[in-house]
Amino acid sequence: MSKQDFLDKLEKSLKNIPVQERKDILYDYEEHFVNGAVSGKSEPEIAAALGNPEAIAKEILADYHVTQAVENISINNIARAVLATVSLGFLNLVFVMGPLIGVVGVLFAFYVVAIVLIFVPLLIPLKAGFPSGLGAVLSWLFTSMMTAGGGVLLGLGMILVTRWAGRVFLKYLQFNLQIIRGR
Amino acid sequence: MIIINAQFKKGALEMCVLVLSSKQDTYGYELAHKISEKFQIAEGTIYPLLRRMTLEAYFETYLIESSEGPPRKYYRLTAKGRICMIEMIKEWREFRSGVDSIIAEGVGE
Question: What does the domain layout of chain B look like in residue ranges?
Fold first, then answer.
């Protein structure tokens, strides 16, 4: 592989990284090729010793996306961090996707419960007919206040729990990356 | 076995980089060259490592003009980096002597 091929492949694989940072990364490899040439090595020799540019890019990307997600927690950033970590190898698929699916499943179940509770006031008349008489209306009203109120509280609580779970999961991803790097 | 080997090298690489830059400032190619003389690595993995270690303030970098091409990026070990190096060497020696004694007992040397 020539110097240009190597740098092109690396640059292409790093296209998700902002221009300035990407240039910075590529600069190190350009410098490496120049230093190699000075000590009398050919471009293919230098490229072979560097290793596969796509594999190098994967490691850089995983690092970058996890750092981004830690600095700015959002579903989008966490998803990218997960994808980048998973792409590092099969083991990560198991160790990252397994816990992720578990956590997301539990969170999803609680959200469903919250939504159902909020809609119970509408479901009661559907199932049992609209309440007639003062006693029935009052009982419907109080039941509704309890279930809908509980649903709203649970929903709000779940938003907090989700944020917290996101943060914990990112910590786990970082831990995972450190293991991969062998630290 | 291949996986374990790769893990060993990655862990040791960071320590080698720290040690090799502790006597005098160094640049990426020199590090890659010195390390690959001793054991086989993909030299390209040194740069992400250096980047990370610079971000963690183990290194400071500066550029020096070179007659042959682009300016060369030099790495200077910081006090934090030096402390980390000493700690890693200590852990490494304990680990190595532990493993060595287990091997010695097991193989019956």
Answer: 6-107
